[in-house]
Design brief:
Structural class: alpha/beta
Number of strands: 31
Number of helices: 20
Strand content: 15-25%
Bound molecules: 5'-O-[(S)-ethoxy(hydroxy)phosphoryl]adenosine
Distance between the termini: 39 Å
Shape: globular
Helix content: 25-40%
Radius of gyration: 24 Å
CATH topology of one domain: GMP Synthetase, Chain A, domain 3
CATH architecture of one domain: 2-Layer Sandwich
Oligomer: single chain
Largest sheet: 8 strands, mixed
Strand order of the largest sheet: 13-12-9-7-8-15-16-24
């Protein structure tokens, strides 16, 4: 890590919010915004104290922040509340009681709706079943479920009784479940027989059985009926959750949780080492999720809000469940794949349910681009008013397509940067305020003190690349890694001597104070002494009409240190050829300079991705270098992709 990361991408388009959007936005007056933003940085305790008091507390907090044991923060010290109380009970005495909290559509097309009152009753029933089976406050419960309302209900039921939920994405293997159950010390598991995915029932309970084989410590496996697939039954351990819930009481008082009691663990895999159980607590997390959902998604009572993320990821925690429900929003939940039974499925759902706010990921956006505009445009999208993206840097090409084709140039786009660790959105446009720029997450959210620094922690100049750090604690920040305080300090706080939270991402800040995220610093390339961000070169490749998706990695090169190897997938109507490879190399040289000209372009049918849609560049590095893939592949979504890239027989 010698010198700075060079930034070579320049994108000058800018899209201020339209007058029509601003007229109804939650916040649209620049002076008010500036005042609030300044207050949030200069007097964070005043700002956050006021926001926190907008939520219901079972016992008021005495102090907003205790940062004396840095980097271990305490927010809303002495306060007691309950996450399910914040998401449900507070709405029962308002007009929202009979408003839809959840609108769910299964992959086969059935629709189920829950009002806030119904969701409250369903959560209480589950909570009573968990209690009756001996699940106690502080116990960890693993959830391995499809995207069905029962998943949301189970999450909130855990919260209601003070049990810590650890949601494991429904695509993980038995071994991954086992590792997470063991690491978290989980004593119960909630699962379903199976769920619908790509036109078939994907078994879940059998995977849990395999994961738990020979493992002591789990006293109960709660099973929800969904897939109707045959499953084995372990008497004494397994119970049907839906049957027991039907007989349980629809009232269950919320457990008064200390603001700093753990709400959930969520495992995230770094590029090395075992997955980290990121620990989030109650009060601060809720305040962060609540405020960001409110302002970033501009939530109003007449919205139907759809975040397409699976609840197995942090986005599903903060922006399917906690943030929107704390705001009393109506949330759409969809079980299945975006292209089942046809590539227009998402847009069909938007039209059918009249979705007004849509939050999805660049990887999905690029897939829709590849599948063709006609699958989008044949459905009515006039209900949409705001679009969001998260998970990876979005290349300007995809951003413009999202804006023009999906949003008909009418909807603002919020490109939101954050992490499992940050709990809530940290860098983002505010849709009624910020002039959005394609590819930039723009400005820090309230209370976020973000900076781009060099190796020594000094801020770099305008448009210079560097490390993205956060310099102040924020309410929804992780409180640690489960069972490993030392790793928490080492991973996030040691790089800059304990002064700043290190995000692991590279970024630059432009002349307007907008942040451009350049991806993980582990992925930075070193070509002839220049440190380049993969994301910028990929973005240049994707700006060529033939290219749908690209991943650039370095392979060892005697002369330049690293030579650039680009893996690209191409769109319909184009064919892979040496001539196209040459054209693409020239295209990059022209767009960003000879320095970034790939030494090699390889065509691929698909790129290896994690199950949350991030490209796994570390696997590509091995392939580019002709090495055996020695990396941990447990998070790879589709193993055949790897085999095809290596040229193996399938
Ligand atoms: C990347 C997902 C650029 C980034 C909420 C971060 C992004 C990691 C963006 C966290 C964005 C997320 N622009 N990069 N808008 N959003 N990232 O923990 O590298 O799954 O550090 O949380 O995703 O991923 P995680």
């Amino acid at each position: 890590m010698g010198h700075q990361i060079e930034s070579i991408l320049r994108e000058n388009r800018s899209f201020p919010p339209s007058a029509a959007f601003r007229a109804r936005a939650r916040i649209s007056d620049p002076a008010e915004y500036e005042r609030l933003y300044r207050e949030s940085l200069e007097q964070p305790e005043v700002f956050w104290g006021r926001v926190a008091r907008e939520l219901p507390w079972l016992k008021p907090f005495e102090r907003v922040l205790d940062w004396s044991a840095k980097p271990f923060a305490k927010w809303f010290v002495g306060g007691r509340t309950n996450a399910s109380y914040v998401c449900l009970d507070q709405h029962l005495t308002t007009h929202r009681r009979d408003k839809f909290a959840l609108v769910w559509e299964g992959e086969p097309g059935e629709v189920v709706r829950y009002t806030y009152a119904e969701l409250h009753a369903a959560v209480c029933r589950y909570a009573n079943v968990l209690k009756a089976r001996g699940v106690k406050k502080g116990e960890r419960v693993a959830l391995y479920m499809p995207m069905i309302p029962e998943l949301v209900i189970a999450v909130l039921a855990c919260a209601r009784i003070g049990a810590v939920h650890s949601v494991i994405f429904g695509g993980f293997s038995a071994q991954s479940i086992r590792d997470r159950v063991e690491d978290g010390g989980c004593t119960a598991v909630i699962t379903a027989d199976g769920g619908w995915r790509r036109g078939k029932v994907l078994p879940l309970k059998p995977v849990v059985d395999e994961a738990l084989a020979g493992l002591a410590g789990v006293h109960t496996v709660f099973v929800v009926r969904r897939g109707g697939n045959l499953i084995e039954w372990k008497d004494g351990r397994d119970v049907w959750l839906d049957e027991l819930a039907a007989q349980a009481s629809p009232e269950c008082p919320p457990e008064p949780m200390d603001s700093e009691d753990t709400l959930f663990l969520l495992y995230t895999s770094g590029s090395t080492g075992k997955p980290k159980g990121i620990r989030h607590t109650t009060g601060g997390y809720l305040v962060g999720a609540y405020l960001s959902a409110r302002f970033v998604f501009d939530l109003r009572d007449d919205d139907l809000y759809w975040c397409t993320a699976d609840v197995g990821w942090v986005t599903g925690h903060s922006y399917v469940i906690y943030g929107p429900l704390a705001n009393g929003a109506s949330v759409l939940l969809y079980e299945g794949a975006p292209n089942t039974p046809h590539p227009g499925r998402f847009w069909e759902l938007v039209a059918k349910h009249k979705v007004s706010v849509l939050y999805t990921a660049p990887t999905a956006i690029r897939s829709f681009m590849r599948w063709g505009d006609e699958h989008v445009t044949r459905f009515d999208r006039s209900s949409l008013r705001l679009l969001g993206t998260v998970g990876e840097p979005i290349n300007p090409e995809a951003w413009m397509w999202y804006r023009e084709v999906v949003g008909e140039s009418r909807c603002p786009i919020v490109d939101t940067w954050w992490q499992t660790e940050t709990g809530s959105i940290q860098i983002t446009p505010l849709p009624g305020i910020t002039a959005a720029k394609p590819g930039s997450a723009t400005r820090p959210f309230f209370g976020v003190d973000a900076a781009v620094v060099d190796e020594h922690g000094n801020e770099v100049g305008v448009n210079q690349g560097g490390y993205l750090v956060l310099r102040k604690p924020w309410p929804a920040m992780l409180r640690g890694i489960h069972g490993d305080d030392a790793r928490y300090v080492e991973t996030y706080w040691s790089k800059f001597g304990g002064r700043y939270y290190f995000t692991g991402d590279g970024a630059r800040k432009d002349q307007d104070g907008c942040f451009w995220i350049m991806g993980r610093v582990d992925d930075v390339l070193n070509v002839a002494g220049h440190r380049l961000s993969t994301m910028e070169i990929e973005s240049a490749l994707v700006s060529h009409a033939a290219v749908v998706e690209a991943a650039v990695v370095g392979r060892p090169d005697e002369i330049s240190g690293e030579a650039l190897c680009a893996f690209v997938t191409i769109g319909p109507g184009h064919s892979a050829s040496p001539a196209l490879a040459e054209l693409l190399k020239e295209h990059v040289a022209k767009e960003i300079g000879k320095l970034a000209r790939p030494a090699e372009v390889r065509f691929a049918e698909a790129l290896p991705k994690t199950r949350s849609g991030k490209i796994m560049r570390r696997l590509l590095r091995d392939i580019a270098a002709g090495r055996e893939v020695r990396q941990d592949t447990s998070t790879l979504e589709d193993f055949s992709v790897l085999a095809r890239l290596r040229g193996d027989e399938e």
